[in-house]
Specification:
Elements lengths: L2 H15 L11 H7 L1 H8 L7 E2 L2 E2 L6 H12 L4 H4 L1 H22 L4 H8 L2 H6 L6 H21 L3 H17 L3 H15 L10 H15 L1 H9 L3 H14 L6 H12 L4 H11 L6 H14 L16 H14 L2 H28 L4 H20 L4 H18 L14 H6 L1 E4 L9 H5 L8 H7 L3 E6 L16 H7 L4 E9 L16 H10 L7 E8 L9
Parallel strand pairs: 3-4
Antiparallel strand pairs: 1-2, 4-6, 5-6
Helix pairs in contact: 1-6, 1-7, 3-4, 6-7, 6-9, 6-18, 7-18, 7-21, 9-10, 9-11, 10-12, 11-17, 16-17, 16-18, 17-18, 19-20, 19-21, 20-21
């Protein structure tokens, strides 16, 4: 790999690493309740082939990322910044793949493409989390690049590695990897120039498919043998949760999600797509545009999250860099200023929020300085690297430095930590709070469901939220409340402490109390005090059942 490729990889690791060690950094329920806890339970149960979560076998997702996290926990320790290496390394990998692909397609230095990947909201956010989407994106893009380079260099060995990369993508999140690889390969076979006829690549296709099958099949096959309900669970995940949920409004949602991942370069990406479908457009640009659109096409008619389309970002980064390079100076300056303006609005909003509510003064000023920097670089605009570098700077400051100072998901220091370390700890809340308690205790907190409380009881500590603690109308007899569930199970308890906190709800940007109104926000701004927007966490200690007297 060239020195500049190592340079872009190092830069990516540094900018994405910033903020990953903070419990109050960017996160979401799928990360702190699923991804981070699954390898903890695998270690506790000595189950290294079969995934475990909430004291049950977890069949919904493939194992590669969880195997990686299990290894990281055991070698480096149970720390957030080590766990989130999976996102950091994947983001760096995407940047390097875009860099290499740009060089191969256009015979020009690939730094703008690598910068463009890091300058998108999708990588800036997801690259700081331990999730499955980023490895899926990195390995899918690597598979496409290896096939492209194998065809152009007539190197059949690269098809073998392409099959290995495709297997890694599939074992990272599932067969949706094929949605991002097959369209690229088929469209490339049709549009891109080649030195030999397509039929001659049958042998190369076998070199890809054989290692893919050999590496991918054993784990699901073993799950089918070990767990009779694996096929039913797989069908539920693919058909029940995705294909059967057709939504006629999803085409706009899917396209909007793809553009949202590309912020602040969404308008430039639209420009690139329009350019790519002109009759006189080069075959390489038409291939990139077709690859991107065909990859998101399946999401047009199903409900999904934006992060599911993360694998399009290496392709989008190449398109963004190519368009910036090809536009006349006035157009490039215009698009750069639009991107700088969009990101500046985000930076200024976060900065003023932190300053107004006394959350962080110096980081708010640092953010404003970064905003001034991005506008200055967009105005200078000597090369495409200028505005892209400005975006990377703002994302790093806002997400890695400023946002963690807001205290979202903060755990108080005055909890009875010695007691929590020595006793069972559970979380009885649909919001799974406190978010980072498992990482703090370095073991997976329990999920004391109503049926488990009735069967085996619970002696230890349980966290819950105030709305889920006690029914305001006890005559309802609803089991969903912790108070009722414990009393039904014959378990006495005492409240240890209560504390207010912001916590991530569904995604990192939603953190205020569920049900907060516009009136609550107006009151908070008038008082410059956010306490009224916080949720209340309640910690109870369950008491041991009194022993029955012997007859």
């Amino acid at each position: 790999m060239k020195r500049s490729a190592w340079w872009i990889a190092g830069l990516a690791v540094v900018v994405l690493w910033i903020g990953t060690g903070s419990e109050t950094g960017v996160t979401g329920k799928d990360e702190y309740w699923v991804t981070l806890r699954t390898p903890l339970e695998m270690i506790e149960d000595h189950s290294f082939w079969t995934l475990r979560l909430n004291d049950e076998v977890r069949l919904q997702k493939p194992p590669l990322v969880y195997w990686f996290l299990t290894m990281v926990y055991q070698i480096l320790g149970i720390e957030l910044h080590w766990a989130r290496l999976v996102g950091v390394f994947s983001g760096a990998g995407m940047a390097v793949i875009a860099y290499k692909m740009y060089e191969r397609l256009f015979q020009k230095p690939g730094l703008p493409a690598g910068f463009a990947v890091l300058a998108t909201a999708g990588v800036a956010v997801e690259g700081r989390r331990a999730m499955l989407d980023m490895p899926l994106g990195a390995f899918s893009a690597l598979s496409v690049y290896l096939v492209l380079s194998g065809v152009q260099d007539r190197n059949p060995i690269r098809f073998v590695f392409a099959g290995i990369a495709l297997s890694a993508a599939t074992l990272s999140k599932g067969p949706q990897s094929l949605l991002f690889v097959i369209p690229a390969l088929l469209l490339g076979a049709w549009l891109l120039p080649r030195d030999v006829p397509l039929k001659a690549h049958g042998y190369s296709a076998l070199l890809l498919l054989i290692p893919f099958a050999v590496l991918t099949i054993p784990w699901p096959l073993s799950m089918r043998i070990l767990h009779a309900d694996f096929i039913a669970e797989l069908e539920t995940q693919i058909v029940g949760n995705r294909l059967s949920k057709v939504d006629l409004t999803s085409p706009l949602n899917a396209l909007g999600g793809a553009l949202l991942l590309s912020i602040p370069w969404s308008f430039l990406l639209i420009h690139a797509l329009l350019r790519g479908f002109k009759r006189q457009a080069p075959a390489t640009e038409r291939w990139l545009c077709g690859w991107l659109l065909l990859s998101i096409l399946p999401f047009f008619f199903m409900k999904s999250f934006e992060r599911y389309m993360i694998p399009i970002l290496p392709c989008a980064g190449v398109l963004i860099a190519r368009t910036l390079d090809q536009l006349p100076p006035a157009w490039r300056r215009g698009h750069s200023l639009v991107a700088a303006g969009l990101l500046s609005i985000v930076g200024i909003t976060f900065s003023l929020f932190g300053w107004w509510f006394h959350l962080s003064a110096w980081t708010s000023l640092l953010t404003l300085a970064a905003v001034a920097g991005i506008i200055g670089l967009a105005l200078r605009n000597r090369t495409p690297l200028d505005p892209l570098a400005g975006c990377i700077l703002v994302f790093t400051v806002v997400l890695g430095i400023l946002y963690p100072r807001f205290g979202i998901n903060r755990i108080p220091v005055d909890l009875p930590w010695e007691e929590l370390q020595q006793h069972r700890v559970g979380v009885y809340s649909k919001y799974s709070q406190p978010a980072m308690m498992s990482m703090r205790l370095k073991r997976s907190v329990e999920w004391p469901r109503e049926d488990r409380l009735n069967e085996s009881g619970f002696e230890g500590y349980i966290f819950t939220t105030r709305p889920e603690f006690q029914d305001p109308d006890p005559s309802d007899q609803k089991v969903a409340y912790l108070d009722h569930a414990l009393k039904t199970a014959g378990i006495e308890y005492e409240v240890v402490t209560r504390y207010p906190v912001f916590f991530s709800r569904r995604n990192w940007i939603r953190f205020t109390r569920p049900g907060a109104t516009d009136s609550d926000w107006r009151d908070a701004f008038q008082k410059r005090d956010l306490e009224g927007l916080k949720s209340e966490i309640i910690l109870v200690r369950t008491l041991p059942k009194p022993e029955k007297p012997h007859k």
